[in-house]
From TrEMBL, chains A, B:
Name this protein carries in UniProt: Metalloregulator ArsR/SmtB family transcription factor
InterPro entries: ArsR-like_HTH, HTH_ArsR_DNA-bd_dom, HTH_MetalResp_TranReg, WH-like_DNA-bd_sf, WH_DNA-bd_sf
Xref: PROSITE patterns: HTH_ARSR_2
SMART domains according to UniProt: HTH_ARSR
Domain of life of the source: Bacteria
Listed PANTHER family: ARSENICAL RESISTANCE OPERON REPRESSOR (PTHR33154:SF18), TRANSCRIPTIONAL REGULATOR, ARSR FAMILY (PTHR33154)
Keyword 4Fe-4S: no
Keyword presence, Transcription: yes
Domain HTH arsR-type, first and last residues per copy: 26-123
Alphabetical list of Gene3D superfamilies matching this protein: Winged helix-like DNA-binding domain superfamily/Winged helix DNA-binding domain
UniProt keywords, alphabetically: DNA-binding, Transcription, Transcription regulation
Species for this entry: Streptomyces phaeochromogenes
Length: 125, 125
């Protein structure tokens, strides 16, 4: 995955901890970057594709296995996969005839942590 | 929050644990419901509004305090707030002249948990 894609999620590539939604108001730049990732998730076909990829034992899926699950053309599926990739949620590699996709769990975990309410620093704070 | 809004997040109202993205492929119904919530998050203005509401000490914010942060009309802000409410992420109440908004952290936590990779059942499994 490129550094550019990582930055789409509003995090540095160092994996450092991130602001949570409920910590403080987002500035415009943070909101624009995070909105790109959530927009990529905001489509049923893309969510199904991502869950098919992320839940695959072994970690990667041939595009030839994804397309038959949908009543959509190959170019349409490829377009949705491209949007997921541009959002930094999956990556891919061409091998011979087919392209193989895998999820980037770090990116999903960071988005998940962003949505989850921060735990108070002290147990009773 | 209405039961209908809770169901937008693809969960029952009982707060029971939910399928994670990486557990198994989503079916069409689950994907359609979850996509609505992520689509609501997929806009920078809505993300900023939601973070302003969710991070507010005391838990609620008057719409009169939200609008001045944006160079957008009151009806536009109200439309974005309506979409967040329809997605089950916030709720509101009118008191006199103004409407007051608060976040629904349970809904955000469930979406966050959905994105976060499931932990193996055994520590080293």
């Amino acid at each position: 995955m490129s550094k550019q894609e990582l930055e789409v999620l509003g995090q540095g590539a160092d994996g450092g901890c991130c602001q949570a939604l409920a910590t403080a108001p987002l500035d415009e730049g943070q909101a624009a970057e995070l909105a790109k990732a959530f927009k990529a998730l905001g489509d049923p076909v893309r969510l199904r594709l991502l869950s098919m990829i992320a839940s695959r034992e072994g970690g990667e899926v041939c595009v030839c296995e994804l397309t038959p699950a949908f009543e959509l053309s190959q170019p349409t599926i490829s377009h949705h996969l491209k949007l997921l990739r541009q959002a930094g949620l999956i990556d891919c590699e061409r091998r011979g005839t087919w392209v193989y996709y895998w999820a980037l769990p770090g990116a999903l975990d960071r988005l998940g942590a962003f949505l989850t309410a921060p735990q108070p620093a002290g147990a009773t704070a």
